[in-house]
Amino acid sequence: MKQIMLFLAGVSLLLLPGCWDQSSLRDARLIYGVAFDQAPQGKVKTTIVIRNMPSGDRKNPSNEVHSVIGNTARQTRDLLDSNISEKLETYKVRALLFGKEVAKKGIYPHLDVFYRDPRASLNSRIAVVDGEASQVFYLRRVGDTLIAEHVDEVLESEEDAGILPKTNVQSICSLLLEPGQDFLIPLLRKTESEEVAAVGTALFHGQKWTGEFNRKESVLYLMLTNEIEKKAQLTIKIHPQHGENPTSYITIDMLKPRLKREVKISPSGGVDVIFSGTVYAKVVEFPENNLTDSDRLEQINHELSRALTLEVKNMLDKMQQANCDALSIGRHLAAFHPEFWKKQDWEKDYAKVRFHPRIKVKILETGITY
Amino acid sequence: MRSIFRGRKKRKSEPTTKVGDTTTRVSSSLQENIDNINEKLCRSQDLVFRSIEFNGKKGVLVFIEPLTDQNQVLKAIIQPLLKVREGKLEEVIIANYLRQTESFDEIIEHLVRGDSILLFSRSEQAFIVGTEATEKRNLTEPDNEAVVRGPHDGLVENIKVNLYNIRHRIQNPNLTVKFFRVGAETRSKLAMLYIRNLAHPDLVKEVEKRINAIRTDTIMSPGFVTEFMEDCPASPFPQVLYTERPDRVVSNLMEGRIVMLGEGDPTAVVVPVTLFAFYQTPDDYHSRWMIGSFVRFVRLMSFLIAFLLPSLYIAIVEFHPEVLPISLIYSLKSSIDTIPFPAIIEALLMELTIELIREAGIRLPSRVGQTIGIVGGLVIGDAVVRAGLVSNTMLIVVAITAISSFVVPSHELSTAIRVMRFPLMVAAFSFGFFGIVVGLIIIFMHLVKLESFGTPYLAPFAPLRVKDLKDTFIRLPIWKLNQRPHDPHPQRMKQEEPSRGWKKDEDS
């Protein structure tokens, strides 16, 4: 008798939990994209894109876009959940967009909910929209592609091309919270022809937007941080004397450039950062032609090096103006020169850092010419 | 020496009792003997009495008609007796087996085996002549253990033929055969085979002890014997290996294992075995070793698939959809969105349907069997999805699971796996991945504890013996397998000396 009771108690213990932590895929509404915008009176406007997949043979997915205004990101999600059938799930968010206003005020408050939820997708791509982020989602469709997927794919292809940094919820987490380290987020813009284009990157300091790079500067930044995985394309004006003419330009593929960075503290207390190294390149377009001559090639190498170094210098200046330490100089100082770092007021002293790019370009391949 | 059978409860074995202990003697009166035989055999009407005369004495030939070889009776007894009217009976009768006896019980015992009895008036001696009929079918390849390449004969229902088949393959005086009579009423013949200088003596003793301990009226098949003998009757996993292939029997004998054959059943019982023995087939050894290894590996993977796939699917759909990649999650969602049941009901529905189709397929005569294929495969498979009762993906999961469970060469293990996945599915539905992990832990605890005649069931994996792994997950070339597997504790480990020495000579 006692054994039977024990057995029954065991079985009921197994069954009593009754799937309490179940979260069935059947009852889930999957959010594909989320956008945060500034609303009046310090409120936040959250826009979500839900992907619907009709069952049966005709598989044409459709998007639903919803917006709501609330005090915090979490509250807006709860408000949205009450409007929408089934349960909203964020574990497959692919694109997370911030409007310009929100980005200027600080993005951490809206990301907090993602970091606290164990099911939240940490690999969703982040981007900033120049303008209102919800406007991008209300495009609903670009060509034949649904909007959130389009945004995700645009970002992905630009990452692969070595133009935008790989940014997702997880990768910016530590950068957001750590002093002496800043980050860049891809910048999107809704064009006049109702499309979405990746126009460059937004520079962040702390958690606020402080400046922006165009696509070329963004490539140069990735070159300095050795983040280009395969190759990246760069068009440089090497013959300004030709004026606005195709022959004044050269386009090269930088083949997995790897540069050396050196941080030095001068006796006077200034910080010198030296970038040195050789970028191996492949010429993909050179309207002027005549690359067969080795002397001429040498000359172009030289001109290219000079032009590239100049462009890098300009990019670095812009970064310093935005007070964005995306190259993690402060982090380096804190790690290797802690005494020096303690004396620094990085908010101001970052602008005093002297950058010395010394980059050589060497053309390895000239392409097929006869 | 440390006993390999430690920690088992000792059970006293007693010899089986014999039928009818009252030993009577053959009477000198012929009529009395005939009456007695009739009485003992319940006046069975297939009993034949034929009058004969020899040396001027009246006699009678007794046999049970269906059990005896009529030709043999005619040629060995009747014809010589009619031709040679007198002399010594031993010189007249032409038979392999001829014995004189005075014991009446012995007469009865031989009669029911199919021998003929000669009785003469005014004589207390009876002659037993071996005229046993052997009806046997052809040595065809067993349907459930067919191989692509290799011997295509199989064991049959006749123990003598089976012994011939095995002895023919192992022409070695050390092959020992011991007969047992089990079942108080059926008196079924059971043969135990082992190689004397390979099988561990403790193992032989243990098996003998367990056979002798059987006290039952009926033994129908080796399945009965197994259930009396196995270590853990509460386990779903088979602890002996059934096979109908003589080559498999032989290879197991040569590994130092013990084989039991029963009269009237083509199944040989091999003890002791490990889990991995159920995944070996003769085909592995007849193909090249790389291909053999690949197939073996695929088969072992099928074990995991058959075991885990439905529960993993349930856990993912009901608890952890976030582990799915984005492109998969939408197609999965669209296929399950309209299904009215939770995944577990869906899975149980389909699994039970497949079990039904399988069972019906076995029971139905083969001509009607095709109908089941059409009804089961097309109608249920397609219609159930169209009706929106089961999702497409669940159908795929169930189908893959079913196919993987049929890959197991042993029917017993395949059934065990099919049954074991149901508790896992329930665990997955109640607790997700956590439930699966707990379920697997319990199953592995059981497997590690399980023993088959003193051999750990998961050997050589637990306890680990790296040398024996050569023939488990993969099959290395035969010349690498120069030691016998360790699990049956054979008396001699070495089974192969370097046979490819010529290679070195050639190279140098």
Automatic annotation (TrEMBL), chain A:
Record's protein name: Ger(X)C family germination protein
Main location: membrane
Keywords of this entry: Germination, Lipoprotein, Membrane, Palmitate, Signal
UniProt-annotated location(s): Membrane
Nucleotidyltransferase keyword on record: no
Topology of the protein relative to the lipid bilayer: Lipid-anchor
Lineage: Bacteria, Bacillati, Bacillota, Bacilli, Bacillales
InterPro entries: GerAC_N, Spore_GerAC-like, Spore_GerAC-like_C, Spore_GerAC_C_sf
Segments forming domain Spore germination protein N-terminal: 21-189
Similarity comment text for this entry: Belongs to the GerABKC lipoprotein family.
Residue span, Spore germination GerAC-like C-terminal domain: 200-367
Matching Pfam families: Spore_GerAC, Spore_GerAC_N
TrEMBL record, chain B:
Pfam families assigned: GerA
Keywords, sorted A to Z: Membrane, Transmembrane, Transmembrane helix
Annotated region (Disordered), positions in chain: 1-25, 484-508
InterPro entries, A to Z: Spore_Ger, UPF0353/GerABKA_families
Biased composition (Basic residues): 1-12
Keyword Mitochondrion assigned: no
Keyword Endoplasmic reticulum in record: no
Residues that span the membrane, as ranges: 297-319, 393-410, 422-448
Source organism superkingdom: Bacteria
Family stated for the protein in its record: Belongs to the GerABKA family.
Protein name per Swiss-Prot or TrEMBL: Spore germination protein KA
Organism: Laceyella sediminis
